[in-house]
């Protein structure tokens, strides 16, 4: 698994997951429980992971849909 994105924006991961699902790219969200423990303050980022082989296509899908996920 490779990290596709890391964010504290609670709307970005559901959007990215939906776009990836539509393209048949499996993804997995990490750090969900940590962000819940911090009380939803938004200081601990969540990560979205994809299979290593699917990382280039996943990045392309997000770029094509205007999702900012780098740097």
UniProtKB/TrEMBL annotation:
InterPro entries: DUF2007, N-reg_PII-like_a/b. Pfam families: DUF2007 (PF09413). It comes from the Bacteria. It comes from Allosediminivita pacifica. Residues 1-65 form the DUF2007 domain. This is Putative signal transducing protein.
């Amino acid at each position: 698994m490779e990290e596709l994105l890391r964010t504290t924006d609670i709307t970005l991961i559901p959007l990215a997951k939906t776009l990836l699902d539509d393209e048949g790219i499996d993804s997995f969200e990490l750090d969900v429980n940590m962000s819940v423990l911090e009380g939803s303050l938004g200081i601990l980022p969540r990560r979205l992971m994809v299979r290593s082989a699917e990382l280039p296509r996943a990045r392309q899908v997000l770029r094509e849909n205007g999702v900012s996920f780098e740097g």
